[in-house]
Amino acid sequence: xxxxxxxxxxxxxxxxxxxxxxxxxxxxxxxxxxxxxxxxxxxxxxxxxxxxxxxxxxxxxxxxxxxxxxxxxxxxxxxxxxxxxxxxxxxxxxxxxxxxxxxxxxxxxxxxxxxxxxxxxxxxxxxxxxxxxxxxxxxxxxxxxxxxxxxxxxxxxxxxxxxxxxxxxxxxxxxxxxxxxxxxxxxxxxxxxxxxxxx
Amino acid sequence: xxxxxxxxxxxxxxxxxxxxxxxxxxxxxxxxxxxxxxxxxxxxxxxxxxxxxxxxxxxxxxxxxxxxxxxxxxxxxxxxxxxxxxxxxxxxxxxxxxxxxxxxxxxxxxxxxxxxxxxxxxxxxxxxxxxxxxxxx
Lengths: 199, 137
Prior knowledge:
The structure holds 2 protein chains of 2 kinds. By secondary structure, chain A is mostly helical. Chain A has 8 helices and no strands. Chain B is an all-alpha fold. Chain B has 6 helices and no strands. Chain B has helices at 2-19, 25-32, 38-59, 79-96, 100-109, 113-131. The interface between A and B is large, with 127 and 113 residues.
């Protein structure tokens, strides 16, 4: 029977890396669902909420906010963590991320091995670069995170809020912010990063 | 109950981000080197379909679960601010290879280094509040 579903081959099927069009459509579905549920799609405000909860509201009026009104967003990112856990432990592809050969060669020329012999073997993060073992690894992780947190708050949104939600609502401020993402990203990737790696 | 439904959408989001490899540092590096269409395909498809669905929801006057119409609260246009803020974000995005959503997904995937990166992001958010009055808005 052509219609019978073989459970194990279905599992194998969804465990492959997903095609970009499937992934893009799924992200659009997340945007539509959250809009329908009466909320906007934005992740970085969780950082603001955590700062507020940690007592930031006593330091700056910027952190004076109704935390109860942010619980849905916290629930969303907790869900994101669970999703990451499920994808990695039950739906993991046996092969590392299949990036282009030219990127692999470039990375090896600046001393970053790929595929990364990572603890999980899924090659999502270069742990030779971002790690707890060296001062450099710690500083790069904290420093990069700092720039993301600072820029997201100054720009009032991150990739989900501007690149996905803002652009879908045809917002010019979001388009300019996304152009900024690329100015910074290209500067880092092509000029600053090769220098940082060599330190 | 309401928060539980957001958690479920979050689980779906996390699986999508991991299975699409959009959480991968290597995919982000490759994107900024213009060596693959993958990330552009994901973001492009999401924006085109997202724009269509937002347009339809607004045109058809579809009510959200809270009973209101679909609206968007626009930011005041300030080119200097958007470029500057976006660039700062982009510098960090390209360095740690993940934006806020993937940070949480990767933490769930078992990358404990994300605790440091999220810690850095909290520090950046806090610092912004301290210096915001000196920045163009």
